[in-house]
Design brief:
Layout lengths: L1 H31 L2 H8 L4 H15 L2 H13 L5 H14 L1 H12 L3 H17 L6 H23 L7 H10 L4 H18 L2 H14 L4 H14 L1 H7 L5 H21 L3 H11 L9 H20 L3 H11 L24 H31 L6 H28 L6 H36 L6 H23 L7 H30 L4 H33 L30
Helix pairs in contact: 1-8, 2-3, 3-4, 3-5, 4-5, 4-13, 4-14, 5-14, 5-16, 5-17, 6-8, 6-11, 6-16, 7-8, 10-11, 10-12, 11-12, 12-14, 12-16, 13-14, 14-16, 14-17, 15-16, 18-19, 18-20, 18-21, 19-20, 20-23, 21-22, 21-23, 22-23
Length: 585
């Protein structure tokens, strides 16, 4: 019974430590808010920027597993090139060593109880007195205090080695086999990380056991090497079913860490001696966790320095030997990057969501261009082209459904005001793009009907229709281009003016249709053209809604990102002048 209680106390202390770390991380992420978007924009730079971004991301998330899995998600979404992702993985390996420093410095060298409760007290004041407007910082401080308490309880709950001499003798017996003993403890570290699903938790357990005297410096260092390999398992699992790029990024992470352990094994003993010489105090008792923190950081920094000059070549090597599964290079799912791990940080998942909206906008523009061809010459509206348009519309429906469903599920958590506003605006943009696709499909059906009944406009009516199509084309291209681009006040005024011109042009178009009817024009043809004008005017309204929603995102503080939507801009400036006689409408 005493043994069971001891085990429960041990795991309860570890649970309190991890919960404190999670709470601190959540508070820091929300306090950073939209600044995380700037971090992600920075990551598109050179290899050093990628390493720095991976380091910052891991420090904020307090989990290398979470950050590397998120990196896989960004690669899956097409936001990162392979060498950038691998650079971020290297930075994440350094960032994860911060947990060891935190535990070594605060856990065993100072009186935690003297700092934990005051920290929680200050955090509670900031959290519950809302007039101070520092709830996020208060949450981070409370998490920091809980982390302190977890460390204190963890150190106290680990039983002394005198209580279990048999286990101590067994661990000492394992150390007598040289390199084989080192490899055995490396395996122990890998298994420990896989079981706990957290490298931070595994490192904390290792440092606590070393402090209590259960394992010595070489044994603990070998376990930490194994934990470096075990932490790659989560990212590799997350890449299953993802794109080829995501699988390659995950495999690259695994190869990085395995190669690092392989080069360390032959120099393991000399490296430990070096660490002992540069770290104050002997590697026993309260100073042993500090020795392990120095070892962990030194190993990962050296591993980064070894790989960094060859990062692009290594990325090419990974791409060559990790065979493609998806012919197109992307997963079969429409929203291929949406996984549970993207809920790690709301501010970060908005980044790939907006990128996918850029793709959706590009697809809608292509759909409109095809619709325009069919309206210009209804004789081309055969069944094959109609089916193609229906497939595009169904794709937009599916993308819209997955985006809004994902955003809705993520918005159930605690979001900052800026993030909540951005989520609503992204849902609105997705909805408006889907409505544009619906209008394009309806216009396709009108073109099909015109072909079936052999309806033909006169030359003047045809010119008016083409002018109106050009006008809406320009507005749609403008709106799509700015889904992932910065909007200035001039852009907003330009959008308002374009929407006004589209509305005025519809009124003029309908007026001319009535005049043609009075002159004996075909009734069915003119009514069909009025329906066309109505749908085009609706598209103009939807475009203005997209621009206004995008304005809300900018007001929330989320910066622009590089757009992957290949939108043709040759008609962005077209259509600002209404058809002739517009002024008389």
């Amino acid at each position: 019974m005493d043994t069971v209680l001891a085990v429960l106390r041990l795991f309860g202390s570890l649970g309190l430590f991890l919960y404190g770390m999670r709470t601190m991380s959540e508070g820091l992420k929300r306090a950073a808010g939209e600044r995380l978007q700037s971090v992600l924009t920075f990551m598109t730079g050179n290899r050093f920027a990628a390493v720095s971004t991976g380091f910052v991301l891991t420090v904020l998330l307090q989990s290398s597993s979470a950050s590397t899995v998120m990196i896989v998600g960004f690669v899956n979404a097409g936001l990162l090139a392979m060498y950038q992702a691998l650079g971020m993985v290297l930075g994440a390996n350094i960032g994860t060593t911060m947990t060891g420093w935190l535990v070594a410095f605060f856990g065993f060298r100072i009186d935690i109880s003297a700092a934990a409760l005051p920290t929680i007290a200050v955090g509670a004041v900031l959290l519950f007195i809302r007039k101070l407007r520092n709830e996020e910082l208060g949450e981070a401080l409370i998490g920091f205090g809980l982390l302190f308490l977890g460390l204190m309880f963890l150190a106290d709950s680990v039983p002394g080695v005198d209580d279990f001499p048999a286990i101590l003798e067994f661990s000492q017996w394992l150390t007598g086999y040289g390199v084989l003993s080192t490899l055995a403890f490396v395996m122990v570290g890998g298994v420990l990380t896989i079981v706990l699903q957290s490298s931070s938790a595994a490192v904390t357990v290792t440092l606590t056991m070393a402090f209590a005297g259960w394992i010595d410096f070489p044994m603990a260092a070998a376990i930490i090497l194994g934990e470096n390999i075990g932490t790659t398992v989560t990212a590799n699992l997350a890449s299953i079913g993802g794109s080829d790029a995501a699988r390659r990024a995950a495999r690259g992470h695994f190869v990085f860490n395995v190669v690092g352990v392989l080069w360390m094994i032959p120099v393991f003993v000399p490296f430990l001696i070096l660490v002992e010489r540069i770290t104050p105090g002997p590697p026993v008792g309260a100073t042993l966790p500090m020795h392990l923190a120095v070892f962990h950081t030194s190993f990962n920094v050296l591993n980064v320095l070894i790989f960094l000059p060859f990062l692009r070549r290594f990325a090419t090597l990974i791409e060559r030997y990790v065979k493609a599964v998806h012919p197109s290079g992307r997963a079969s799912s429409v929203l291929h990057f949406v996984q549970d791990y993207m809920r790690i940080s709301p501010e970060l998942y908005l980044f790939p969501i907006r990128q996918e909206l850029g793709r959706m906008a590009s697809s809608v523009v292509d759909m409109y261009r095809q619709t325009r061809v069919l309206l210009e010459d209804p004789s081309t509206a055969d069944q094959r082209r109609v089916d193609e348009q229906q497939a595009r519309e169904e794709l937009s429906d599916q993308t819209h459904s997955e985006i809004t469903g994902f955003l809705a599920s993520c918005s159930t958590g605690h979001l900052s005001v800026a993030t909540a506003d951005a989520v609503v605006s992204l849902m609105r943009i997705s909805h408006e793009l889907e409505r544009i696709a619906d209008s394009c499909l309806n216009l396709t059906f009108l073109a099909e009907r015109a072909k079936k009944h052999e309806m033909k406009l006169g030359k003047k009516g045809q010119r008016e229709l083409l002018a109106y199509l050009d006008l809406v084309d320009g507005f749609l291209t403008f709106a799509a281009r700015h889904v992932n681009d910065r909007l200035s006040d001039t852009d907003l005024s330009h959008a308002d003016e374009m929407e006004r011109v589209v509305n005025a042009s519809r009124a003029q178009f309908k007026k001319r249709a009535r005049k043609r009817l009075q002159k004996g024009s075909d009734v069915r043809t003119e009514l069909l053209m009025v329906d066309v004008a109505n749908h085009l005017e609706h598209i103009g309204d939807f475009c203005l809604n997209i621009v206004q929603a995008n304005k809300t995102i900018r007001a929330s503080g989320f910066g622009n990102i590089p757009s992957v939507a290949a939108v043709d801009e040759n008609k962005v400036s077209s259509g600002m002048n209404p058809p002739e006689d517009e002024a008389t409408a």
